[in-house]
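Re: duplicated header lines in exported structure tokens

Our pipeline writes sequence and tokens for each protein into one text file. With two proteins the header for the second block appears twice in some exports. Here is an export where it did not happen, for reference. First protein block:
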Amino acid sequence: MGRARRTARDVAYALYTRRLERRLDLTRMPHHVGVMIDGNRRWARNAGGGTAHGHQAGADRLLEFLGWCDGVGVEIVTVYLLSTDNLNRPAAELEPLITIIENLVDAIGATGRWRVHPIGSLDLLPAATARRLKEVGAATADTEGTTVNLAIGYGGRRELADAVRSLLQEHAGRGTSIEELAETLDVEHIADHLYTRGQPDPDLVIRTSGEQRLSGFLLWQSANSEFWFCDALWPDFRKIDLLRALRAYAVRERRYGA
């Protein structure tokens, strides 16, 4: 009886998913989606497993999520994997998480479908991890497909500080004085030094687990983004949840700060 109920539920889910897909307005899809994959640890507690079990389930779900985004034509996905604050977690939790992230990056690169672009303060990561991220990024640089920005060792405030530092160093190298820079500085100068420089800002930002805050994610870039908050813990996030987010985005009138 239980198996019959699960089968009926699975069939209903598949039918509803296809219905949503058919009704999506593909002309109004976001080009760039940011996602905050929150809830792995709570999911692990609910499942009776260790924290690493939740992070691994979250990594597995992310691979599926990238495939779903690719399928509807999303050109850029930015994923908040590891914040600078997360780096202060106990070694017993952080070390397995770093290993899971390394394996995840390898798996994304191995698909041959997506261009991997690590963003964040890679100098804060273990040297072997930073080197691995850069190698996968270089190996996939010419891949034609969705660009996957992996925010690892990332903090929005640190990104802005790094951008300003880079801008000052660039102009110092040109011999520009502080006074001259102050007279000409505008927002585009800073945007050109962000980790995501050269990319459009995210159209849609998704956060799972019921939390409704940015937690430092893409502080500059998300100024005019649409937001969609989902109660599902990240490992439980389904394709139908993404489709609902895309449906909600498609009917919004974007005001760009107005």
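Second protein block, exported in the same file:
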Amino acid sequence: MPYYYDATWLLLLPALALSLYAQFKVTSTYKKYAEVQAASGIAANDMARQLLDYNGLEDVPVEMVAGSLTDHYDPRSRVLRLSQTTYSSRSVAALGVAAHEAGHAMQHGENYGPLKLRSLMAPVAQVGSSASWILILIGILLNAMNLVGLGILFFTAAVAFQLVTLPVEFNASSRALAALEGGGFLTREETDQTAQVLRAAALTYVAAALTGLLQLLRLIVIFGGRRE
């Protein structure tokens, strides 16, 4: 039976379904609560600045970046960047997103273990995600199972990176919710609404990890019993 003809792709169906649901969930939930203004009336960038200062991160600037939901914390430059739609917004969704990214800055400032591990794994994972399929394809074409095995090894590194990402993201969200309510930026009801936004966002990471795991399983099923 040719390599390209197999039914193992069925293994990916659960991950595909979860990915589609996660994308729908994060888009619809964010849109819903982006229209709900926080009673505190504080803008996301000002709130992020206060959280950073309170946690001794006065040297971490808060900058605006183009796009929507392009918010991120850059550990290399030690900069928290908020998207145009988040930066000056006073919605409970925007405050949640900004606080989540501030949570990553807090993790960095505290040398949070999983974040350090993810940073160490990032270069290998980046190479692995791109090189793995090239090696596997070349191995198939040349009937060189050692190259296929190397490709699977690279892909395993990329999957491991996705798994390590999960506790990093969950922890950042937990920090965000605690800081938002504890700092008086959100009421209890608003915190529950923000939690829905952050849970929806976290689901996308879960879907990505599940996709990677099932794809890895598929590769092992296809090539695990083959030898040179």
